[in-house]
Design goal:
This is LuxR family transcriptional regulator. The chain crosses the membrane at residues 12-31, 40-58, 64-86, 107-125, 137-155, 167-191. InterPro entries: Sig_transdc_resp-reg_C-effctor (IPR016032), Tscrpt_reg_LuxR_C (IPR000792), WH-like_DNA-bd_sf (IPR036388). Pfam families: GerE. The chain is mostly helical. It contains 15 helices and no strands. Helix 2 runs antiparallel to helix 9. The longest helix is centred in the middle third of the chain and has 40 residues, at 193-232. The radius of gyration is 26 Å and the shape is elongated.
Amino acid sequence: MTVSNTDMNVVTATFIVFEIIMLLFQLPIYLAKREKIRKYYLILLILLIIKNIAMGLFPDPRISFIPIGVQYGLTYGAGFIMASYFPFYFYKAYDISQLKWHATRGIYFFLHLPFFLITGITYLLKKDIDQAIDNGLIIPAIYGIVLGYVLFNAIREKYRYVERKDYLQIVGVYFAVIPYATLAFFAYFRIEQVNEALLTNGGFAIITLLFVRQSIRDVRSDLERLKEIDKALPDVSLEENKATLMPLEFAYKEEPVLVNDSYDPGMRLEMNMNEFGLTTKEKEVVRLLKLGYTNEEIGNSLNIQVGTVKKHLENTFKKVLVKNRLELIHKLEN
């Protein structure tokens, strides 16, 4: 079943509507919080919407105002951009450092260059656009399978020490990867639009579930930390509160007023981390560092690479203006 007088399947159109709603819902949250992982997710969402529209509408000989060659270019171009972004998304969103080369260089050497070069040469020689595209997709299709294998190994390595409760995260990431790793492969075999829509958008649905799940966990973690901070606040009697009230005649002076100097080190640590502008991940690293964790133990606890832990510490040292861990904890607790 198609929509109106186009070749777009109803399934594809349904996914487009759902994804536009998700975009309208997530965009204001990103503009308010400016989270990097949400930014990468929104880019993925926008690219998927563009790919679905191009895949659903083109190529269609009835759309006479757009040359058929341009329609092919729009369809495969949107698919290639989508396929190119997915390794970058997993590299950034899940901090999988083994994907850096593929995300920044490999896709150009084995995806873009072979496709455009071989497709162009074949079309010039044969004047057959379908055969040219088929020939151009051979190397990208093989590379997609190789990339999927590389990504699976990288995910397995990253989650080697994961707790049992996080197995759902691993399985989810595996299944989310499959559709994008095989985009060029299925494009070569010209699978039907509805099947391609179910495949790629199914992968996105899994990514969305993982994204929402992680957001919920982050909110719960923040709430737990707020409860700990609240418990750390000293109990102050009514008389003590009266003694610290600011006289009315000084109410409009813009001078800081010290209300109470009896915060414990844990409370000071949280306040100072906010004062120095540490990110959420940097704060998590500092809290574990304070407990005596090594870099490897911190990495295992946060499911990040040791190199990433070191990078967070380097950034934290620069922000707090210290040279080592001891100075860092001492300065943040005082």
